[in-house]
Design goal:
The structure holds two protein chains of two kinds.
Chain A: E1 10-17, H1 28-41, E2 52-56, H2 65-71, E3 78-81, H3 87-100, E4 106-113, H4 139-144, H5 146-154, H6 158-176, H7 190-195, E5 198-200, E6 203-204, E7 214-222, E8 234-243, H8 260-273, H9 278-281, E9 282-286, H10 292-301, H11 310-315, H12 332-336, H13 340-355, E10 371-380, E11 383-392
Helix pairs in contact in A: 1-2, 3-13, 6-10
Chain B: E1 2-5, E2 8-11, E3 14-21, E4 25-28, H1 29-36, E5 44-47, H2 54-65, E6 74-78, H3 89-96, E7 104-108, H4 114-124, E8 129-136, H5 144-148, E9 151-159, E10 169-178, E11 184-185, E12 194-195, H6 198-220, E13 229-234, H7 237-248, H8 259-262, H9 269-280, E14 286-292, E15 295-303, H10 316-321, E16 324-325, H11 328-334, H12 353-358, H13 360-365, E17 367-370, E18 377-378, E19 395-398, E20 403-412, E21 422-429, E22 434-439, E23 452-463, E24 466-475
Parallel strand pairs in B: 4-16, 6-7, 6-8, 13-14
Antiparallel strand pairs in B: 1-2, 3-9, 3-10, 4-5, 8-9, 10-15, 11-12, 14-15, 17-18, 17-19, 20-21, 20-23, 21-22, 23-24
Helix pairs in contact in B: 2-3, 6-7
Chain lengths: ~400, ~475
């Protein structure tokens, strides 16, 4: 098995990202148009120059025509991709590999989701006809099983575990409050998080990602062409992906305290990018904080903390804006919101802003480190897909 | 064994096994009167869970009857309250029991007397006949039926005994008295029974019960004073009481340890009482089962020596002892009398008929696959081995009777359920295998890691009129572990 990666061969030269919000006045087409328009306005690249498109949307529409129609793209290869909540990352991965292969000079990835038209709370999957034996649990319920399992395995008492989860929610709301595009722009207290109505298991409303409409877009070209389109490209150091077989759900050895698919994807990404000490080398990381215990466990799966220690690192503030490794400086899924097909590209958008010094000053990190990581997962504990990217402003 | 039977020598057929199924929940009559200011009464009744119907309860009774590994040649299912009409509910029970395709499975009628015909047909028919009866009794709030009836199922296997599966009670006589009169009636699709003035039925049943009882004793060649146990069932409570007083003739032979706890369970009740009576009976005892339903039917049974050694897997008496109270408000919502605000989530899509058929063993039988290379169990069954990559080398493994342990669990307050919240657990099975599965017959605040669960056949939801049948976990309970509420 080989995973060679495309380190420094492809660069992102433009990005766009709509605000993530309950956008009652915008349809799927509007969100696509807004993200794409901002993306083109961000660089010298034009729509005519884009050779191929990938649209990531989980449930926004079928086929590439879902993108081609609103953007009025005629006669070009336009493909729709879906891979659970990593859909947006998959669109970028396809576009980047297409350019790296030499098949195209310029490709565009767009991720979009219009979730607030369903009339229901939360995210709702539309399933093919089935035999009626599948789980009907919410994602919140599946991920809620992580917190007690982790606490029990590492001897963290219930009250401390609750403080850890609240600290994650408080941090991500603190960051989101400093991001004009985020869905929730209010800081919260631990008390607020703890008093919120329970959704599933021990998880309350503030342990769960925001549900928002939104879109994000990126244009990629060969690294050597990057400066024709922007003065400050973002080079792709690694794109890794791992899908589990779903066997964790029925494997008696799986203990709900880690996500092996995420650890696998991270190791592959670090190998592709040549990263040996993530905390030292990364300026920031965006991770898939769909629920607060997910972010906790990811700190260990991604190598940001030793097994069984992330809870203490969270309490010590090591992942805050001013910590060793700021996690989700844009507010994360928790505070920025989670339009499924857009989220992967939204994470990359934060790296795009932060590494190039373009984030709002209230949350702008030091640019002394030149690399960032994004981590995007889809599915459930035991049955998961995971994506990790490493991006950097300098060629190694 | 040979017996004299209506003038010719034939092999004596009888009951090989009998079992009841009593739902976990109980409604106390006083809750009804506390709410409405009338109705109720002092007793309790059984209440089928929101995920149970007559088919699932029938499956549970039949599983208990077949727990010894008995094979059967036919299946008859009788209920006045079927989950489907036109569609054969016995086929669902057949699938859940994983009976061979060659075993015929038939729904029988829709009256309170139907089970009798099913039983007599099985007694007369060849081989081992499985007879399943179930009922789910409704009545308008404050009605006598609401408080005095109950939900249950029962199953018996009849046929000729073998060394492995001996007859525990021979049927030595039968008698019937049929009469057309209107005492109780219900239109198809209606949940509310309607009743004629009580005295008329009481008079009719007095005559009919005497006729059927006398005919059965004569058929058996048994004198009335040889009867050890008299079991009487019927929806007309006064008629049952009067028949008991008359036919017992002052002897202490009337047995019913069931009705006070379960209520009158209609089309299931006579067989439920019989199963309970056989649990307590000793060898040689003569038992008469008398059912009053638009006529009267009497069966005379004699317990064999085998009854002393063949003990039921899950006695009716212990199921009665392990119930837990259900608030009246829950009862009303489960029965559709009151609709409460659901979580704002989409209701489930209807089940695909074709997908359900393809996956019959999994969906209805809870059959997974076992990898012969590693022993790893897959649920649902897998075709490809994770360890070796071999395709279609798996062995089927039935998990329906496996006992599991709760590894971890959660409460989902948002997901769709006919009765939120969903209690959901990751379960490791003794002997291997893990499956994350919904729990039932449990309150959200009483689940704990390490608790044992068994599997139970349930109806998850109904969409487009299609019932979604599958399996859930149910805490293993004994009388002493039952929660007091």
């Amino acid at each position: 098995m080989a995973s060679h990666g495309i380190k420094d061969r492809v660069a992102i030269v433009a990005m766009g990202c709509t605000p993530f919000a309950e956008q009652w006045d915008k349809g799927l087409d509007d969100l696509i148009i807004d993200a794409a328009t901002e993306c083109f306005a961000d660089s010298k690249a034009t729509k005519d120059e884009v050779d191929a498109y990938w649209l990531g949307t989980a449930q926004g529409g079928m086929s590439g025509i879902t993108l081609a129609r609103p953007l009025q793209i005629d006669g070009k290869p336009v493909t729709r991709v879906e891979n659970y909540c990593t859909t947006g990352s998959e669109a970028l991965r396809a576009a980047a590999y297409a350019v790296a292969s030499g098949a195209y000079d310029m490709a565009m990835a767009v991720g979009v989701e219009k979730v607030k038209d369903s009339g229901y709370q939360g995210l709702n999957a539309q399933n093919p006809p089935m035999d009626g034996t599948q789980r009907t649990l919410t994602a919140a319920a599946m991920f809620s099983m992580v917190a007690p399992a982790y606490a029990q395995k590492y001897g963290v008492d219930e009250a401390t575990m609750r403080s850890v989860l609240s600290a994650i929610a408080v941090k991500n709301h603190y960051n989101g409050a400093r991001n004009p595009r985020a869905q929730f722009r209010r800081e919260i207290t631990a008390e607020t998080a703890e008093k919120a109505p329970k959704i599933a298991g021990g998880l309350g409303v503030y342990d769960c990602a925001g549900v928002a409409d939104g879109a994000a877009a990126a244009i990629v070209v060969r690294a050597e062409d990057a400066h024709r389109y922007t003065d400050s490209p973002l080079y792709i150091k690694a794109l890794s992906f791992a899908a589990g077989s779903g066997s964790g759900l029925t494997d008696p050895d799986y203990d709900y305290t880690h996500f092996p698919e995420c650890a696998t994807a991270a190791q592959d990404a670090y190998a592709q990018a040549g990263i040996t000490d993530p905390i030292a080398e990364l300026a920031m990381a965006e991770v898939h904080d769909c629920f607060t215990p997910t972010e906790l466990v990811l700190m260990e799966d991604l190598g940001f903390a030793e097994r069984g220690t992330a809870w203490q690192a969270v309490l010590d503030g090591r992942f805050a804006l001013d910590g060793d490794l700021p996690i989700n400086p844009d507010g994360g899924l928790k505070s920025f919101g989670h339009p499924v097909g857009a989220s992967g590209l939204r994470m990359i958008f934060e790296a795009w802003l932060q590494l190039r010094g373009k984030a709002t000053p209230e949350r702008q990190l030091s640019t002394s480190k030149t690399k960032a990581l994004t981590h995007n997962l889809g599915g459930y504990p035991g049955e998961m897909v995971s994506f990790v990217s490493v991006l950097g402003t300098e060629l190694d | 064994m040979l017996r004299r039977w209506t003038g010719t020598l034939v092999t004596m057929r009888g009951i090989i096994t009998a079992a009841g199924y009593v739902p976990y929940r109980r409604l106390e009559g006083k809750q009804i009167s506390a709410f409405f200011g009338s109705g109720g009464g002092r007793g309790t009744r059984t209440v089928a869970s929101h995920d149970e119907d007559t088919t699932t309860m029938g499956v549970e009774a039949a599983r208990r009857a077949l727990a010894g590994g008995l094979t059967v040649d036919s299946l008859r299912f009788a209920t006045p309250t079927p989950a489907y009409v036109d569609k054969n509910n016995a086929s669902t029970i057949h699938a859940a029991l994983r009976l061979p395709s060659s075993v015929g499975a038939y729904d029988v009628g829709g009256s309170l007397r139907s089970w009798t015909g099913a039983l007599l047909g099985a007694l007369d028919g060849p081989g081992h006949g499985l007879v399943v009866a179930a009922d789910l009794r409704d009545g308008l709030p404050t009605s006598a039926d609401e408080a005095g009836c109950g939900d249950a199922a029962a199953a018996v296997v009849v046929g000729e005994g073998t060394d492995d599966a001996p007859v525990i009670a021979e049927i030595i006589g039968r008698g019937a008295a049929t009469d057309e009169f209107l005492d109780r009636w219900r239109s198809p699709g209606d949940t509310r029974p309607r009743l004629w003035e009580e005295r008329f039925g009481e008079t009719r049943y007095a005559e009919l019960s005497r006729a059927a009882y006398g005919a059965a004793l004569a058929d058996a060649g048994v004198e009335a004073d040889s009867v050890d146990r008299l079991v009487i069932s019927g929806m007309h409570a006064r008629a049952v009481k009067a028949a008991g007083a008359k036919l017992s003739a002052g002897r202490d032979i009337l047995v019913d340890e069931v009705t006070a706890a379960t209520g009158q369970t209609g089309g299931a009740h006579a067989l439920l009482l019989l199963a309970a009576a056989l649990e307590a009976a000793g060898p040689g005892e003569v038992i008469v089962l008398l059912n009053l339903a638009d006529g009267a039917d009497a069966l005379v049974l004699r317990a064999t020596e085998a009854i002393a050694t063949v003990r039921p897997a899950d006695p009716v008496a212990s199921q009665i002892a392990t119930g837990a109270p259900l608030p009246y408000a829950k009862f009303l919502t489960w029965r559709g009398a009151v609709t409460v605000e659901p979580p704002r989530r989409p209701s489930p899509d209807r089940v695909s008929s074709t997908a359900a058929w393809r996956n019959e063993d999994w969906k209805f039988g809870f059959v997974g696959s076992k990898d012969p290379a590693t022993g790893a169990i897959s649920m649902p069954p897998a075709r490809v081995s994770k360890a070796t990559g071999d395709v279609d080398a798996m062995e089927p493994v039935s998990m329906a009777d496996a006992v599991g342990t709760i590894v971890t669990f959660t409460i989902d307050r948002v997901a769709y359920s006919p009765s939120p919240p969903i209690v959901f657990a990751v379960v490791d099975f003794d002997g291997g295998g893990r499956f994350p599965i919904e729990l039932t017959d449990v309150d959200a605040d009483e689940v704990s890691i390490g608790e044992k669960v068994t599997m139970t056949f349930r109806r998850l939801f109904t969409s487009d009129g299609i019932h979604d049948y599958f399996w859930k976990g149910r805490p293993v309970r004994t009388a002493t572990s039952t929660k007091e509420a």
